[in-house]
């Protein structure tokens, strides 16, 4: 990038509020997308055991890959943090809350173009291959409206689409949360959110074991809102702290360590008890999202106060393409598997799968971000994307 462009972008920062672009959080988005990618690369390679032997020591990396689904939880915490910041700033300045119409339009411009492009291509490929069983009117319309979680038979066209309604529903909930938060004590609102999610999780638990309940309520809602609203809300609380008083370097490091320890303990539980949501295991299923959300909330707040951690240029680039990377990596892995291009069975197979699939995934993701996402961004969002593209010095 030439110096003139860099100077222009530096000047444009004056038009973008400093808190609209937090370099470390762009890096965290890249980390979240990369972790999900590693998880699915590992799954498509046959979920091999990953062990590194050094002398008499064995380093087990399997839990790190097997817990890659936590990248989704990190995305949710980041959404709560970043999207609530304008509301917190307005409350702090005693100014009007952000215009909800503008908020909605920006969310549509940010989310829908890349999603619809991805959906259209996948549907076209399924039709061309004659795999039309899932191409029902109800399924298509529900995906277009991002309400596929409401359809009784949840047959998605992309292995990651199940998370889209969760994010979409949060956009509708956020203004209500912020309206309540700025008029009440944060502790009381947190208690209300925790009471709501725990009650809903118990309802899901009852639906799993009680057949009459299951006729009217689907246990699958355990992974949707409001069951995991607290994950977003811990990010919202972190943003409120950051806007009012960003953590010092020492406090930021303490928060990062606390969050990392919390996530490491969660990974250890997963390694011991397996997926505590399928089948539901008490008390883990009640604590699952709260524990993870609180740990990531601390981690995100700590990272936001840092000027060096997670600001590497390659991680910023991954953060820039993270949304398209999330949308495209799974169908591309499925396509590679369909044509028998992936290895399965052991660590060598994972390495082969990674070398074959990753370059294509990164290329398609960059093309999607550059050609589909960027043209639809509002000027404000495009300035932030430019800063992300510029990245930070290595």
In short:
This protein is mainly α. Helix content is about 70%, strand content about 0%. About 35% of the residues are buried.
- In total, the number of strands is 2
Radius of gyration in whole Å, from Cα?
A: 21 Å
- Residue fraction in strands: under 5%
Give the helix tally: 16
Largest sheet: 2 strands, antiparallel
- How far from one another are the termini? 15 Å
Q: Share of helix among residues?
A: 55-70%
Shape assignment: globular
Domain unit count? 2
Unreliable parts: 1-19
Query: What's the order of the H and E elements?
Result: HHEEHHHHHHHHHHHHHH
User: What structural class do helix, strand and pairing data support?
Assistant: mainly alpha
What's the overall average pLDDT, rounded?
A: 87
Strand order of the largest sheet: 1-2
Structure characterization notes:
The chain has 394 residues and is an all-alpha fold. It has two domains: 1-68 and 312-394, no CATH class; 94-306, no CATH class. The protein is built from 16 helices and two strands. It has helices at residues 3-12, 23-44, 62-66, 70-92, 100-128, 137-144, 164-181, 186-209, 211-214, 229-244, 249-273, 284-304, 313-320, 322-338, 347-376, 379-390, and strands at residues 51-54, 57-60. It has a two-stranded antiparallel ribbon. Helix 4 crosses helix 10 and helix 13 runs antiparallel to helix 16. 36% of the residues are buried.
């Amino acid at each position: 990038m030439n110096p003139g462009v860099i100077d222009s972008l530096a000047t444009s920062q004056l038009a973008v509020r400093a808190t609209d672009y937090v370099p470390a959080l762009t890096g965290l988005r890249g980390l979240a997308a990369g972790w999900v990618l590693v998880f699915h690369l590992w799954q498509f390679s046959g979920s091999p055991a990953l062990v590194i032997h050094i002398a008499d020591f064995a380093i087990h990396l399997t839990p790190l890959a097997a817990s890659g689904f936590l990248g989704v939880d990190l995305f949710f915490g980041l959404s709560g943090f970043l999207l609530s910041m304008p509301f917190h700033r307005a409350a702090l300045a005693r100014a009007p809350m952000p215009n909800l119409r503008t908020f909605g339009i920006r969310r549509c411009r940010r989310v829908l173009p890349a999603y619809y492009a991805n959906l259209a291509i996948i549907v076209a490929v399924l039709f061309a291959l004659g795999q039309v069983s899932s191409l029902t009117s109800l399924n298509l319309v529900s995906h277009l409206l991002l309400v596929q979680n409401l359809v009784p038979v949840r047959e998605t066209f992309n292995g990651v689409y199940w998370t889209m309604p969760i994010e979409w529903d949060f956009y509708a909930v956020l203004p209500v949360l912020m309206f309540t938060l700025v008029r009440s004590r944060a502790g009381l609102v947190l208690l209300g959110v925790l009471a709501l999610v725990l009650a809903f999780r118990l309802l899901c638990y009852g639906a799993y074991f009680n057949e009459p309940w299951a006729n009217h309520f689907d246990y699958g809602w355990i992974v949707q809102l409001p069951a995991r609203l607290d994950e977003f809300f811990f990010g919202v609380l972190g943003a409120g702290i950051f806007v009012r008083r960003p953590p010092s370097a020492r406090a930021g490091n303490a928060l990062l360590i606390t969050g990392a320890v919390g996530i490491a303990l969660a990974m250890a539980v997963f390694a011991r008890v397996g997926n505590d949501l399928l089948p539901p295991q008490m008390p883990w299923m009640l604590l699952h999202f709260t524990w993870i959300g609180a740990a990531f909330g601390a981690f995100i707040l700590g990272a936001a106060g840092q000027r060096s951690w997670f600001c590497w240029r390659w991680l910023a680039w991954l953060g820039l393409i993270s949304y398209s990377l999330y949308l495209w990596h799974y169908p591309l892995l499925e396509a590679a598997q369909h044509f028998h291009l992936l290895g399965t069975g052991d660590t060598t197979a994972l390495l082969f799968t990674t070398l074959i699939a990753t370059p294509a995934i990164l290329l398609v993701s960059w093309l999607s971000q550059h050609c589909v996402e960027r043209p639809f961004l509002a000027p404000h969002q495009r300035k932030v994307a430019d800063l992300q593209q510029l990245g930070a010095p290595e």
